Amino acid sequence: QKIFIVDNIPETLVPNKKLESDGVVSCCICGDKKMIKQMHEHVGKYVLAKFRGKPDRGLLQEIEVELCGFCGREDVCITTLTKKRNGTRSITSTCEYQNISMKYKATTIFKPSIHCTNVPIHCPFCLPSISDVPKTIRKYNAINHFHFKRRKPNEYSL
């Protein structure tokens, strides 16, 4: 049996230890202290504000095209949406801010108790990975993804 070792694995591929949902962290976008279970909604509000042309002043970082919906950083975390055999969906992420108690189906529906529906979705235009997993993007970032990442030269614009 042959075994090989990969040295220098990129940080984005190494899963971080998940924090408890009531653990308090600093928002990577604004620096505010929030519980892990609040970060999904907190980051979502910044994405919507940018999309509506109303970005906040005094942020620690610019709101990017495709940022992580858990921590707000871009090109650091990898989040994947998978469909289980029973039809339910599961979210896995390398982000330490991932709320592991978040229920996918419940989060897709706006309710007074759930203000943010910025869930991972599959891009219908991107090719699947080599392991046949569709590209996962965030619902609130979908238009930006289609416009900036999927657009070919001379194609129509939004």
**Total of helices:** 3
Helix-strand sequence: EEHEEHEEH
Structural class: alpha+beta
Strand content: 5-15%
Mean pLDDT across every amino acid position? 81
Strand order within the widest beta sheet: 1-2
Radius of gyration: 17 Å
Unreliable segments (pLDDT under 50, ≥5 consecutive)?
A: 153-158
Portion in helices: 10-25%
The biggest sheet, with number of strands, parallel, antiparallel or mixed sense and barrel status, is: 2 strands, antiparallel
What is the straight-line distance between the termini?
Answer: 53 Å
According to DSSP, the number of beta strands is 6
Net shape: globular
Describe this entry's structure for a reader.
About 20% of the residues lie in helices and about 15% in strands. By secondary structure, the protein is α+β, with helices and mostly antiparallel strands. The strands form three sheets. A two-stranded antiparallel ribbon has the order 1-2. The longest helix has 16 residues, at about 35-50. The termini are far apart.
